[in-house]
Amino acid sequence: MSVSQPSCTTPRELFSVLAAGAVLLVVVHSLGRFIYTPLLPYLVADGQLDLQQGASIATWNYLGYLMGALLAIRWHRIDHIRLLLPLSLAVHVLTTLLQTRLDSEATIAASRWLNGVANGVVFVQAPALILEWLVRRNRASASGLVYLGVGLGLLLSSALVSLSADWLSGAARWWPAAILSIPLAWWGTARLLKLEVPSRPESSGHSADHGPLLDRASVPLFLSYAGAGLGYILPMTFLPLVAQRQLPPEHWLLDGSWLLVALATLPAAFLWNHLGSRLGDLPALRANYLIQLLGVLAAVLWPGPVGLVLCALLVGITFVGTVLLTQRIGRALHPHQGPRLSAALVALYGFTQMVGPWLTKQWLNLGGTLDTAFWIGVAALAWGLVFSALVPKPEAWHRHKAESV
């Protein structure tokens, strides 16, 4: 039985641990993955890539993310995390540095794939390690604040791309992200490796650790999360490119659409962490899906400034909430499978994110447009909303299982 230690955790210690997790998400998820979104229009304009190549490279990155999450399912114990976390951050730094020297589609895709593997491992393991540390101290409700790093990172990535746009070109546009990643990765990793979270040996007797992840409670949650991954990834990959095609040159939304996403994402972790604690994680998750659905729908119903602004704001304010609420619900349904369940959810999310750019590429090859490809996201989020309504409340599910024994 784990021992709760609420009196041993000072506000300063809690802040430093959450900050370290947030910083690592800035590094791998924003400076590694999402900076590609505002960079892509510049890389296309520089002649380094075309639109189809950009979508293909995004797919390779998401494939790496999926494989990283699958690695985290296999090596999910605390002692595994202490080994893989620093290794993955080193891979992120090295591949981002390498990105500044590459020009061919094949080598860029290979580098982005490997960077995605590192991203997938860290995105699973850093929050999972922090959540286990928080649970032992009765502070699990604060776990969602780790994802503040995604919002801060989006704002940072937007600023780095915009500020360096006029004096860098081609592969050199990756230099700001590469340079900044080094000190941030070093500090965040060093702080998390100091956490006192005991490794649970294989023979500890917790048979639930190796029980089935999929049951009547978790299957709807997994299906819902699949819709979330496919639904949000289209605007999060292609929104600036859509703005470039819909708006006149020099319009403020050409760079401003991504800035709006970043600004909307900033309060998202705090907002959905609070709403989940206040309303319950399941009702908050259903509201989250509905708002996100309306955001992607706005982009296809009102092409131009109105649709772009609504899409940026509504997707930005929600997608982090989908992640943190789903992770908490999953752990509540399977409390002894924290890191393993987290990895499985991220793997599924990664798979559907990989499918999004691939479907977009197929649609473009068939003569479709990037604007109409967003209907894929609308359908996916509608799917997610329907299945979220089928997820039982964790307390009711555990009561049902106890009564059926």
How is this structure best described in words?
Helix 4 (78-99) runs antiparallel to helix 5. The protein has 405 residues and is an all-alpha fold. The two termini are 22 Å apart. Mean pLDDT is 85; it is low at 1-7 and 201-209. It has one domain (10-199, 214-404): MFS general substrate transporter like domains (Growth Hormone, Chain: A), CATH 1.20.1250. The protein contains 16 helices and no strands. The chain crosses the membrane at residues 14-36, 56-76, 83-101, 113-134, 146-168, 174-193, 213-233, 253-272, 284-301, 307-329, 341-360, 372-391. It comes from Marinobacter xestospongiae. Pfam families: MFS_4. This is YbfB/YjiJ family MFS transporter. Keywords: Membrane, Transmembrane, Transmembrane helix.
- CATH fold topology: Growth Hormone, Chain: A
Q: What does the overall shape look like?
A: globular
The value of Rg in angstroms is 20 Å
CATH class identity: Mainly Alpha
Report the sheet with the most strands, covering strand number, pairing sense and barrel closure: none
Helix content: over 70%
CATH architecture: Up-down Bundle
Poorly predicted sequence stretches spanning 5 or more consecutive residues: 1-7, 201-209
Keywords: Membrane, Transmembrane, Transmembrane helix
Organism: Marinobacter xestospongiae
InterPro entries: MFS_4 (IPR010645), MFS_trans_sf (IPR036259), Sugar_transporter_CS (IPR005829)
Subcellular location: Membrane
